[in-house]
């Protein structure tokens, strides 16, 4: 029996290939994701291992460990004198200080703009290049020499490559100081890691770095090497006593592990993100396989009946169909697994195209990748093949003797609509549970959303066979108008076997529903974002960092004041802080000027409270006040990343738009802010000009901050547009990833059409005999395909809108607008038509090429 | 194409010949495995005639019909339909020629399951993009006695009714010649009788030229002319005759 199954598969190669493709793509996406994220992980591991290669223990500032929404505070520096003190400790072979700043050093690219690292670090290093300290240097020179003196810099090989910089060139670098020209004395990389992704580094000698990065007399870390025979533990306990307050000593191993853990949190986010798309593609693939096997089982009714008459048991029939599924699953998963290696490169290119590339090392092809990809691919195929296999066992032997034998109806068929409704109801419960139960953990929430969505799609797919007729009547109308007799026949064909059309359309429905969901939600978010910004910002201009969201050098804000037309310039400082133990952003504002640039929606207090903030007065957002139980007049303890503590008093409470509050949860006077944070940075600098923005004032302001290339002057409108564009880029990535599942459904459509054409061979022969031209045959198949695709769109678009509405409601606390982008949905419907046309190309050609005579004699 | 059609036009109307085959051969396959289905058959089908083609299986009768109907091409020899030599026509021209001049009745009815009886009947007109002559549609459906079944789908019709739909579908385009391939081959003997009667009637009432391939002696007996094929050649011809004569001739042919 197994031989029968495999021979059968070999005899239907095209079908086998198309069916396999449905699962190959999903598996490839999965293995590609693993390969990509493993490789990124490895690259980071190498970077960190390299950083600590010659180091046994590390002395660094012991800052409070404040982190909020993925941002962590950088530890404060320690006094440079610590280096000598540590060197004097017995058992220390060597010790060297280094300066490392993660965000403020910007290399100016060829276009005169600071290289945008898209949120990745832009390191500024000060490194001790003396021979004794060489063992601590994590960098390797690719060309040139290490920098010496205040005029030289070494930059990373990736940036040198991208921007075409060479040793001896002059490059401008901005730091906490305005941009200055430096001569490139050399080009370096971390150990053997070629690319840092979008991250950059600029290396100076220590005194230069200290000046540029405002760490006079300070270092960020002291790397210590032990003498032979001295363990890191011993060294730690020996060094501990000599350290001043605010400094700590840890083993290099622990430091590296911390860094790795932080990064793997990030890469595992990417991993889950991409795996979700692999899961969607596999889910769609499951539909395709289910449908293809169902059709082939129906077409082989005679064959199964014949096998039964010659003695095959039901179990053997079951086994034969399952074997077929298994063979497809195994082959497809194997191909997918290796295709994933290629796809990983493709994914990386996608990230690169969106300027989000990540560090790369040698490709990692882990055992886990192989096992999980193969297992998931095979299991999904088997599950999808189970129902058709069971149907096949229900063929009675007598069917062998009947003309036009048909597969007996499933015993469950009469209950199918009720089962489908039941599935949809369960899906609804799961979704509601996920969205409206507050105490649910993120993992559980995502799981029940995923489960709910899968069940919802399955349920809708099951019930959609009942919807095929009415929908086809509507979406088939153009076909009848344009396609004439062929179009009319196409519509008839599409409703002949509603179950088959429904399953085919359902595969496309999933892709379209998800794309619609994303589009609708994104549209709402953009609207909310615009509204939030317009509600808050009253200023004419906003100065931000190049990327629009990172903090930037405070001096840049002050530089704006030099513009003659700048009537009002007010900066908003921002750093992490801990208020009564709760982490959040703390902002520093000008009490006198802020209201002219920012509109407060007061809950308690008014603009006048800003006048009596004094030195420790604070205004607090309503959400934070509620969470932390703060009322006007209450005192709270503010701990800064610079390890300073300030008792603040709540003076006013306001309600910022929940979608995008521009200020931190707690705002204090800027003058106070600057005393309790070292190297304070700006989040925004707001500027008002007389008579509102004009090209002339824009140019003037841009000129004023020219020395700080990371600062970007935009009108409020430009800033919003910029954010929309950045967001669109992210959306594009989502669409590209979702396109994968649409492609899978295209294979499903091709498959169904090929099988239908095959099944209707004799009918096509008759049609050709009574006067249907080849053109009309092609048109008929094409229209059927388009009708099927449009059914998918007709199901997917409302489903996507519904899901978006649900999520919008669930995220009610962020005040996301619900707004349907009709133009985009029209585009999706057009894409569905194109998908239909593309899927029909090959089947239509096959149908048109049929030999009339053979088709007529075909049984 | 129009000019070619004119060039190849022979005075068909004058002679009363609507389909003619001249020394037609048809070979399938090549080399040693080649099979000669037809080995030089010539015949003229006269307007308004019902011609039956008989012969044992493998005699080439189906091949002959396919070639006469423009579904297959001869290896050698010439075929013209309504004066048009079909040898040089491309697929599209041939299809259009079929639309205009040829009607088909099949052994297995070959109706489209998703269309009603009436929709099946008018399908050839729709494919050709021709206007429906309502009166003619009524006339034809009435002729095949399906006025009360016109909205039924094939699955709701008996075999005989389905074949009547097929006959109406063949008649609807007023083809120059109607081909029937074993029209009673899939029907019981009572229904066969009805179908044969209907075919004879449509020849008499509309002057519908018809060529029927059959191995049913009763079917052949309604024909104006019966041709007997054996081994790819016409070996005998009878005029109007009884089933008995047909059977005798069959036996004679099989002894050859």
How would you explain this protein's 3D organization?
The complex is a heterodimer of chains A (859) and B (256). Chain A has 859 residues and is an alpha+beta fold. Chain A is built from 24 helices and 28 strands. In chain A, strands 1, 5, 6, 7, 8, 9, 10, 11, 13, 15 and 16 form an 11-stranded mixed sheet that branches. Chain A has a 6-stranded mixed β-barrel with strand order 20-21-26-23-25-24. In chain A, strands 2-3 form a two-stranded antiparallel ribbon. In chain B, helix 5 packs parallel to helix 7. Chain B is globular, with a radius of gyration of 18 Å. The relative contact order of chain B is 0.17. The A-B interface holds A 484-486, 488-489, 492-493, 495-496, 762-763, 765-776, 852-853, 856 and B 66, 69, 71-72, 91-92, 95-96, 98-99, 102-104, 106, 108, 110, 112-115, 123-124, 126-129, 169, 173.
Helices and strands, with pairings:
The complex is a heterodimer of chains A (859) and B (256).
Chain A: H1 2-11, H2 13-51, E1 57-61, E2 67-68, E3 71-72, E4 78-79, H3 81-87, E5 92-101, E6 106-107, E7 122-127, E8 139-144, E9 152-156, H4 157-163, E10 170-174, E11 180-190, E12 195-196, E13 200-205, H5 206-212, E14 218-219, E15 221-226, H6 232-239, E16 247-251, H7 252-299, H8 301-309, H9 314-353, E17 359-360, H10 367-393, H11 416-436, H12 442-475, H13 477-494, H14 498-536, E18 541-545, E19 552-553, H15 554-560, E20 568-579, E21 582-589, H16 594-597, E22 602-604, E23 617-621, H17 622-627, E24 635-640, E25 645-654, E26 666-669, H18 670-676, E27 681-688, H19 695-704, E28 711-715, H20 716-759, H21 761-769, H22 774-810, H23 822-849, H24 852-857
Parallel strand pairs in A: 7-13, 9-11, 21-26, 23-25
Antiparallel strand pairs in A: 1-15, 1-16, 2-3, 4-14, 5-7, 5-15, 6-10, 8-11, 9-13, 10-11, 12-17, 18-27, 18-28, 19-27, 20-21, 20-24, 20-27, 22-25, 23-26, 24-25
Helix pairs in contact in A: 1-9, 2-7, 2-9, 2-10, 2-20, 7-10, 7-14, 7-20, 9-10, 11-12, 12-13, 12-14, 12-22, 13-22, 14-20, 14-22, 14-23, 20-22, 20-23, 22-23
Chain B: H1 2-7, H2 12-15, E1 17-28, E2 35-46, E3 50-54, H3 61-68, E4 76-81, E5 84-85, H4 91-101, E6 102-105, H5 117-128, H6 134-143, H7 159-171, E7 177-181, H8 189-206, E8 210-213, H9 217-220, E9 225-230, E10 233-238, H10 243-255
Parallel strand pairs in B: 3-8, 3-9, 6-7, 7-8
Antiparallel strand pairs in B: 1-2, 1-4, 4-5, 9-10
């Amino acid at each position: 029996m197994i031989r029968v199954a495999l021979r059968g598969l070999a005899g239907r190669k095209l079908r086998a290939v198309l069916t396999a493709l449905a699962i190959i793509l999903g598996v490839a996406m999965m293995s590609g994701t693993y390969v990509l994220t493993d490789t990124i992980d490895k690259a980071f591991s190498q970077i960190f291992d390299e950083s600590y290669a010659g180091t046994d223990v590390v002395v660094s500032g012991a800052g409070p460990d404040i982190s909020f929404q993925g941002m962590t505070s950088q530890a404060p520096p320690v006094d440079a004198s610590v280096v000598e003190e540590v060197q004097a400790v017995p058992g220390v072979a060597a010790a060297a200080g280094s300066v490392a700043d993660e965000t403020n050093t910007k290399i100016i690219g060829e276009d005169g703009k600071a290289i945008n690292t898209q949120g990745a670090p832009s390191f500024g290093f000060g490194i001790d290049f003396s021979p004794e300290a060489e063992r601590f240097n994590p960098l390797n020179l690719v060309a040139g020499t290490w920098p010496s003196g205040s005029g030289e810099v070494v930059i990373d090989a990736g940036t040198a490559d991208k921007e075409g910089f060479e040793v001896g060139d002059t490059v401008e670098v901005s730091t906490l100081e305005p941009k200055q020209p430096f001569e490139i004395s050399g080009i370096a990389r971390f150990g053997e890691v070629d690319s840092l992704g979008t991250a950059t580094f600029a290396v100076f000698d220590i005194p230069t770095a200290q000046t540029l990065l405002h760490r006079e007399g300070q270092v960020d870390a002291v790397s210590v090497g032990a003498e032979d025979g001295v363990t890191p533990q011993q060294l730690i306990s020996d060094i501990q006593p000599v350290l001043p307050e605010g400094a700590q000593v840890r083993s290099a191993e622990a430091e590296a592990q911390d860094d790795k853990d932080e990064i793997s949190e990030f890469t595992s986010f990417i991993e889950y993100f991409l795996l979700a798309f692999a899961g969607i593609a596999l889910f769609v693939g499951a539909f395709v396989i289910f449908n293809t096997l169902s059709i082939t089982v129906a077409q082989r009714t005679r064959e199964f009946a014949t096998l039964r008459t010659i003695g095959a048991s039901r179990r053997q029939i079951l086994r034969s169909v399952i074997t077929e599924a298994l063979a497809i699953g195994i082959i497809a998963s194997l191909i997918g697994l290796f295709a994933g290696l290629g796809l990983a490169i493709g994914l990386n290119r996608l990230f690169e195209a969106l300027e989000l590339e990540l560090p790369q090392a040698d490709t990692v092809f882990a055992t886990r990748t192989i096992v999980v990809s193969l297992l998931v691919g095979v299991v999904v195929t088997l599950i999808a093949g189970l129902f058709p296999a069971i149907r096949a066992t229900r063929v009675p032997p007598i069917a062998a003797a009947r003309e036009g034998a048909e597969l007996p109806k499933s015993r469950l068929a009469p209950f199918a609509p009720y089962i489908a409704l039941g599935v949809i109801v369960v899906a609804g419960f799961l979704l509601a549970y996920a969205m409206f139960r507050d105490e649910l953990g993120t993992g559980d929430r995502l799981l029940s959303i995923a489960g709910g969505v899968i069940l919802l799609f399955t349920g809708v797919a099951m019930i959609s066979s009942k919807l095929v007729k009415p929908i086809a009547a509507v979406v088939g109308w153009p076909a009848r108008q344009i396609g004439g007799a062929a179009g009319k026949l196409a519509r008839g064909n599409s409703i002949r076997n509603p179950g088959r059309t429904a399953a085919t359309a359902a595969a496309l429905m999933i892709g379209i529903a998800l794309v619609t969901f994303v589009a609708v939600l994104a549209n709402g978010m953009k609207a909310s974002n615009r509204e939030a910004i317009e509600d808050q910002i009253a200023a004419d201009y906003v100065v931000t960092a190049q990327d629009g969201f990172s903090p930037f050098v405070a001096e840049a804000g002050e530089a704006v004041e030099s513009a003659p037309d700048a009537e009002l310039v007010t900066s908003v400082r921002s750093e992490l802080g801990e208020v009564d133990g709760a982490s959040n952003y703390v902002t520093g504002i000008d009490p006198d000027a802020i209201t002219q640039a920012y509109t407060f929606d007061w809950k308690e207090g008014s603009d006048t409270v800003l006048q009596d903030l004094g030195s420790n007065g604070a205004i607090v957002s309503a959400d934070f006040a509620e969470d932390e139980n703060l009322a006007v007049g209450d005192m709270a303890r503010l701990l800064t990343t610079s390890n300073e503590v300030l008792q603040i008093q709540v003076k006013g409470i306001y309600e910022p738009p929940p979608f995008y509050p521009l200020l931190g949860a707690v705002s204090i006077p800027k003058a106070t802010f600057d005393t309790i944070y070292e190297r304070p940075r700006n989040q925004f600098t707001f500027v008002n000009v007389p008579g509102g923005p004009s090209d002339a004032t824009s140019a003037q302001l841009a000129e004023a901050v020219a020395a700080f290339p990371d600062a970007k002057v935009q009108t409020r409108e430009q800033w919003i547009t910029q954010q929309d564009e950045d967001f669109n880029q992210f959306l594009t990535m989502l669409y590209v990833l979702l396109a994968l599942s649409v492609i899978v459904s295209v294979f499903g459509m091709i498959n169904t059409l090929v099988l239908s054409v095959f099944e209707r061979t004799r009918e096509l022969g008759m049609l050709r005999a009574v006067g249907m031209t080849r053109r009309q045959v092609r048109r008929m198949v094409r229209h059927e395909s388009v009708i099927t695709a449009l059914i998918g769109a007709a199901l997917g678009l409302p489903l996507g809108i519904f899901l978006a509405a649900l999520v919008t409601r669930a995220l009610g606390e962020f005040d996301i607008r619900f707004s349907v982008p009709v133009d985009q949905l029209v585009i999706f419907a057009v894409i569905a038509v194109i998908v239909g046309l593309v899927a029909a190309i090959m089947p239509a050609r096959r149908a048109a090429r049929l030999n009339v005579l053979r088709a007529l004699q075909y049984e | 194409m129009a000019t070619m059609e004119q060039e190849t036009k022979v005075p068909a109307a004058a002679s009363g010949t609507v389909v003619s085959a001249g020394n037609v051969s048809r070979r399938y396959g090549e080399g040693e495995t080649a099979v000669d289905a037809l080995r030089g058959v010539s015949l003229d089908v006269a307007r308004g005639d019902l011609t039956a083609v008989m012969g044992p299986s493998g005699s080439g009768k189906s091949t002959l019909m396919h070639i006469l109907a423009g579904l297959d091409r001869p290896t050698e020899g010439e075929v013209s339909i309504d004066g048009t030599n079909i040898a040089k026509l491309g697929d599209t021209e041939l299809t259009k020629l079929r639309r205009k001049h040829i009607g088909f009745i099949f052994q297995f009815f070959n109706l489209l399951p998703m269309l009603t009886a009436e929709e099946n009947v008018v399908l050839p007109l729709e494919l050709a993009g021709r206007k429906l002559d309502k009166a003619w549609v009524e006339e034809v459906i009435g002729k095949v006695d399906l006025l009360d079944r016109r909205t039924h789908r094939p699955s709701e019709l008996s075999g005989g009714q389905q074949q009547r739909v097929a006959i109406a579908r063949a008649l609807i385009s007023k083809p120059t010649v109607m081909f029937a391939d074993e029209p009673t081959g899939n029907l019981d003997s009572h229904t066969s009788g009805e179908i044969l009667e209907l075919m004879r009637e449509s020849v008499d009432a509309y002057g519908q030229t018809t060529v029927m391939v059959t191995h049913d002696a009763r079917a052949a007996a309604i024909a104006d002319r019966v041709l007997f094929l054996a081994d790819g050649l016409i070996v005998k011809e009878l005029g109007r005759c009884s089933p008995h004569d047909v059977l005798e001739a069959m036996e004679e042919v099989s002894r050859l």
